[in-house]
Amino acid sequence: MGHAYQTAAENLDAETKRDRVFAMKLSRKSKYGVRALVAIEVAGERCPCGAAQIAGEAQMPEAFVEQILGELRRTGFVESRRGHGGGFRMTIASEEVSVLDVVKALDGDTRTSEPASSPESPAAVLRVWEEARMALNRVFSAHTIAEIAALERASTQARATTKVEGS
What we know:
The chain has helices spanning 2-11, 14-25, 28-43, 51-58, 62-74, 99-107, 123-142, 145-166, and strands spanning 78-81, 87-90. The protein is mainly alpha-helical. The termini are far apart.
């Protein structure tokens, strides 16, 4: 039985594996919150950005983006202006905002799928879950919105260059 599972897992491509792990650890709200802040940072001088622009660039539902931006505004990550030329912009330097900051603002502390005080789990298993949570926090705190935005800009530029060369 373990062998069949291992074989099925090995057949998953790297991207699928990454997405499944990522999905287990972050809510959609946190993932969209990071993506929204990255879209604002990538837009740079074109900001403030409207929710529709952010949703379009990050390929997310506009209504959900509006809710998330409202929470990010209330927690101090973005500010908004109404009217012509209005929209959202970051209030904190993107170099100072980690993925962990966004996750904590939108979801609270990171958590694993196993509750910390589950009576069904032996202490050794709980220790593993806590170790996983700490590793996740280390990774999320090591990556900033600025870093992810820079990677996104480079990726967009590479796609544009490839498209021009292929034409």
